């Protein structure tokens, strides 16, 4: 694919999403996307704040004590530049991180998979490594991190592109019809 960006339906899509290989390798990255150094955690949509709040009691079950205390004292999110973000613990872990062995995992998603919550996780997390920006409409870009190098290697080995890896999250975010349009560029 020669173009850097493509128009697919009403979205502008980074061509890397269609041709770059990617498949998370948690054994090697240790859940780095949930623990990157930052004052904030993950971007949130306003409607997601209500969804998380409604399921917070179930999510609490999986959180370490320091995260529970942070949420009780300061809430789980904060407003930053007209947007919402999850809080960060010690400028590193998202407030919803728990550790299984030495791998950072999401307590929101754990509660969902244990059928204790009906909210899977923020779409910004679900779409990772895709980030959605706005420029008169949605722009989907591949966000590259050195911590994800093992995912690039495993994706190449499994022959899975970012678009294929993120299929479920893109269908959740943009609908099956839109994903089918994107898929036609893969074939």
Explain the layout of strands and helices.
Layout: E1 5-8, E2 11-14, H1 16-19, H2 26-29, E3 40-44, H3 46-60, H4 65-74, E4 77-80, E5 83-89, E6 93-94, E7 97-100, E8 103-106, H5 107-113, H6 123-126, E9 130-134, E10 138-142, H7 149-158, H8 162-165, H9 167-174, H10 176-184
Parallel strand pairs: 2-10
Antiparallel strand pairs: 1-2, 3-5, 4-5, 5-6, 7-8, 9-10
Helix pairs in contact: 3-5, 9-10
Q: Keyphrases for this structure?
A:
187 residues, 4-stranded mixed β-sheet, alpha+beta, 4-stranded antiparallel β-sheet, 10 helices, 2 domains
Could you write a compact summary of the structure shown?
The chain is an alpha+beta fold and about 190 residues long.
Secondary structure class reads alpha+beta
N to C succession of SSEs: EEHHEHHEEEEEHHEEHHHH
Radius of gyration: 17 Å
- Number of helices, where a helix is a run of at least 4 consecutive DSSP H or I residues: 10
The total number of structural domains is 2
Number of strands: 10
Structural commentary:
This protein is of the alpha+beta class and about 190 residues long. It folds into two domains: about 1-20 and about 130-185, no CATH class; about 30-120, no CATH class. The protein has ten helices and ten strands. The longest helix is centred in the first third of the chain and has 15 residues, at about 45-60. The N and C termini lie close together (about 10 Å). About 35% of the residues are buried. The mean pLDDT is about 90.
């Amino acid at each position: 694919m020669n173009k850097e960006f493509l128009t697919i339906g009403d979205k502008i899509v980074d061509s890397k999403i269609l041709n770059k290989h990617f498949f998370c390798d948690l054994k090697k990255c240790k859940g780095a996307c949930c623990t990157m150094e930052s004052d904030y955690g993950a971007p949130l949509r306003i409607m997601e704040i209500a969804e998380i709040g409604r399921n917070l009691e179930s999510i609490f079950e999986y959180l370490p004590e320091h995260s529970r205390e942070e949420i009780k004292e300061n809430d789980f999110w904060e407003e930053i530049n007209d947007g919402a973000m999850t809080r960060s613990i010690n400028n590193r872990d998202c407030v919803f991180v728990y550790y299984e062995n030495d791998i950072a995992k999401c307590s929101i998603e754990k509660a969902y998979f244990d059928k204790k919550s009906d909210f899977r996780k923020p779409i910004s997390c679900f779409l990772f490594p895709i980030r959605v920006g706005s420029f008169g409409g949605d722009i989907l870009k591949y966000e590259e991190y050195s911590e994800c190098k093992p995912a690039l290697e495993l994706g190449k080995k499994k022959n899975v592109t970012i678009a294929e890896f993120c299929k479920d999250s893109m269908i959740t975010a943009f609908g099956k019809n839109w994903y089918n349009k994107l898929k036609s560029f893969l074939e």
